[in-house]
Automatic annotation (TrEMBL):
Provenance organism: Bacteroides faecalis
PANTHER family: GLYCOSYLTRANSFERASE, RHAMNAN SYNTHESIS F
Name of the protein described by the UniProt record: Glycosyltransferase WbsX
Pfam families documented for this protein: Glyco_tran_WbsX
InterPro entries: WbsX
């Protein structure tokens, strides 16, 4: 009997330790934006990148297009096809082993149909270990200019190839499709049971739908449609940057602001950033930028009624596309790790909201803001995430 009790006692200790380890792994939701342009089997990418490897072409040909340029990054994993489920399985394994447990897919819709969806549909959702990772969508509803095409990127013309604007009919088509296809997927990321859906460009949304009143009505319809699908609601997330908040005509009381009233009117319930470049000067040293970012988190938290989830960018330098850029300097893995600790402290000080941190990004190579291992820092950025959120 004593032996049985001892075994039960030891089993209880082991069970407790395993539960604690599981709790540590799941304490924070670290979500990295994923840009789905690094695919080899999407025919709609070829007009921009005719080699057939997506925007890897921009990375691969950088030194050919700009000989002796300082930018010379190479992926340690090679020019992989992220729309291949085997490849994505490897990426999921690497991400989750280093503390990244959510991918936020940049999601596009142009010319009446989805664009760059193969990485999500054929790669991520068909990976054999997809159950390890959550995902949600950020609707990147901006116009497509000639910036993606390396043959035209240096031409100083804002030629609109596709517009991100949609009317009400198209909007409802998009929402119904995403509810059925993605929100109902067991790996879709939810907060309090509500699917999270992020919208990138609010002016585009408002212009396409016909005005603020019409946009508010459309977003309310979207929330109700999500409820009709069996969810308790919709976690509607705004991409926080100046362009998205620059609207007049909203009265503010003593304890609020026009920007807050604008966000409340549209019905957004949470916010995060997409990139440091959207709210501060990035032609600077990374520690200075990270300090300004931290101040911005707390400023937003004090002004807006919606929940704010802190954002950390790995870096910024989009010269692979155009040959020149503002450059975020000294964005070493060590300095990146310090910024992540600031974000973790912010989350810890807000225990009543989801423990969500967003990172730009998993793979924005042509903007030099990626977690994936490279020839310069190796696995340094991923190790930084692991040090902060898993150790």
């Amino acid at each position: 009997m004593k032996h049985i009790l001892l075994l039960l006692f030891l089993f209880g200790i082991l069970f407790s330790l395993e539960a604690q380890k599981k709790e540590v792994r799941q304490k924070y939701d670290v979500a990295a934006f994923l840009y789905p342009a690094y695919a080899s089997d999407d025919p709609r990418l070829r007009p921009f990148w005719p080699m057939g490897i997506g925007e890897w072409e921009t990375v691969m040909t950088m030194q050919n297009r700009y000989p002796n340029h300082y930018w010379n990054r190479k992926p340690l994993w090679g020019y992989i096809n992220e729309a291949d489920p085997t490849v994505m399985s490897m990426e999921i394994e690497a991400a989750t082993n280093h503390g990244v447990n959510v991918f936020i897919f940049d999601w596009y819709w142009y010319d009446g149909r989805p664009f760059m969806e193969t990485t999500l549909d054929n790669g991520f959702l068909k990976a054999d270990n997809v159950s390890k990772m959550k995902f949600y969508l950020m609707w990147a509803n901006h116009d497509v200019l000639n910036l993606w095409d390396t043959r035209l990127a240096r031409v100083n013309e804002n030629n609109v190839i596709w517009t991100g604007k949609v009317d009400r009919q198209e909007f409802e088509k998009i929402c119904k499709r995403n509810i059925e296809k993605y929100f109902k997927h067991p790996q879709y990321y939810k907060i309090d049971g509500k699917p999270v859906f992020m919208i990138y460009d609010i002016p585009q949304l408002i212009t396409g739908l016909g005005g603020i009143k019409e946009t508010t009505d459309a977003l309310n319809w979207f929330k109700e449609e999500t409820k009709r699908a069996g969810f308790p609601g919709l976690e509607l997330q705004i991409t926080m940057w100046g362009v998205n908040l620059n609207y007049s005509g909203f009265d503010a009381g003593k304890n609020t602001s026009p920007e807050n009233e604008f966000v409340k009117t549209l019905g957004f319930t949470s916010a995060t950033h997409y990139q440091f470049v959207y709210f501060t000067n990035v032609d600077d040293e990374y520690p200075n930028i990270a300090d300004r970012a931290e101040k911005e988190w707390y400023r937003i938290d004090s002004i807006f009624d919606c929940k704010y989830y802190p954002h950390v960018s790995v870096g910024w330098d989009n010269s692979p596309r155009t040959g020149h850029s503002a450059v975020m300097r000294n964005n070493t893995p060590e300095n990146f790790e310090k910024a992540l600790r600031k974000a973790r402290d912010f989350v810890d000080s807000h225990p009543r909201q989801a423990p969500l941190i967003t990172i730009n990004s998993w793979n924005e190579w042509t903007e030099t803001s990626y977690l994936m291992p490279c020839n310069v820092y190796g696995y340094g950025y991923l190790e930084a995430v692991k040090n902060v959120f898993m150790k």
